[in-house]
Amino acid sequence: MARGNWDPTDTLTWLIAEGRLIPDVQVMFRALAYRLVDAGAPVDRMRVAVRTIHPLLRGWGITWFRQTDDVQVYDVTHSVEGSSAYIGSPMQTIYEEHRPVRKCLRQMAVNRDHAIFQELRDEGYTDYLGMPMVFQDGTSNALVFTTRDPEGFSDMDIAHLARVTNFLAAVIEIHGQKRTARHLLDTYLGRQTGHRVLNGLIRRGDGLRIQAALWFSDLRNFTYYAETLALEHTIVLLNRYFETVWFAVSANGGEILDFIGDGMLVVFPCETPAATRERCAGALRAAHEAFEAAAFFNAGQPDGAPQIAFGVGLHVGEVIYGNVGAPDRLDFRVIGPAVNRTARLESLTKELGRSLLLSAEFAAQIDDPTVSLGQYSLKGIADPQDVRGLAA
Questions:
Q1: Could you give the 3-state DSSP secondary structure of residue 301?
Q2: Which domains are present in the chain?
Q3: From the CA atom positions of the chain, what is the Rg in Å?
Q4: How far is CA 54 from the centre of its chain?
Q5: Which residues, other chains included, contact 71 with Cβ-Cβ below 8 Å and sequence gap of 6+?
Q6: Half-sphere exposure of 122 toward its Cβ, with a 13 Å CA cutoff?
Q7: What is the rounded distance in angstroms from the CA atom of residue 199 to the CA atom of residue 60?
Q8: 342: left (phi over 0), alpha (psi -120 to 50) or beta
Q9: Could you tell me which of 37, 65, 49, 57 has the C-alpha nearest to residue 165?
Q10: Highest mean pLDDT: which of 106-110, 214-218, 256-260?
Q11: What is the DSSP letter of 211?
Q12: pLDDT tens digit string along 342-365?
């Protein structure tokens, strides 16, 4: 086949008929790269970069390397937009000016072109072609081709690769929308709950009966802080508390299911009866870690500054885990007497002057020694409950 005399038609037919059905975007991208190479395309490195909606990430992408047969998936944080890696880069041109970028790497101006061009030339690439992939909402994403061919990209190569970009944009947009939906559900519902929703647990009344270790915590003195601190400082304190708990419970198998003012409901699902002890141990371990993290933060605060202090109630029992709400506005939560009992235990921590209280049912599932603090009447619960604390 003569140089540049290749045709992407069969590859594009495959992409629309079969490639788009591959659920793993990484697998699809590698398969597309090899089909282009087999068709005669002088492509040695191919990268797709997609912007997304995410509280922590600005975008994601995939890079394929022909020389090593390696595929790398990467995430990009919001901070990149203020960095030298982005400012003045070809990606900035593609994203913000919606136009392609072509750079013959053999004819670079030393110390005048962006560093990414220098890096690619040093790695043996001879030509760079970045194409905007325009999605339905008008945003430009990017598909970048680089080659080691001594002749670089011909006009025919560029025309063919522009066709590839247009076809791939439709497929990548679908993957991007699914990824964004998953990220948003993970962010607003939690990873486990978001997974359940994506898998069809979406109708009002849909739910599962599960055994779970339950955590309820509440920030001490929040009303006072809300009345005396500037709103911005109140938000910072609240987020610091939420973050402290999130790190601890996430590391130990828990998931924040609901924020209730300055309160937090956390669930540690017990997938099997045998997992109950493990989940209860994880919840208790998370409490210790959260208290330690709060103490470390407080020790670094100046005199008179707000402190993070909170109470935690821990219980274990059966709950219904599912959708409730109005016909067009649903919430995913756990429901049942066990939830109420957990919240009442936390409320009692203030009265008893303890940071952590356990139900007798929870205490029976852990190895740590506990002591009975007495029988207490909890609001909404008919019989007095044995409330326990750690012996230490």
A1: coil
A2: 9-188 (3.30.450.40), 201-390 (3.30.70.1230)
A3: 28
A4: 8
A5: 26, 29, 30, 62, 63, 64, 65
A6: 6
A7: 23
A8: alpha
A9: 49
A10: 214-218
A11: E
A12: 999 999 999 999 999 999 999 999
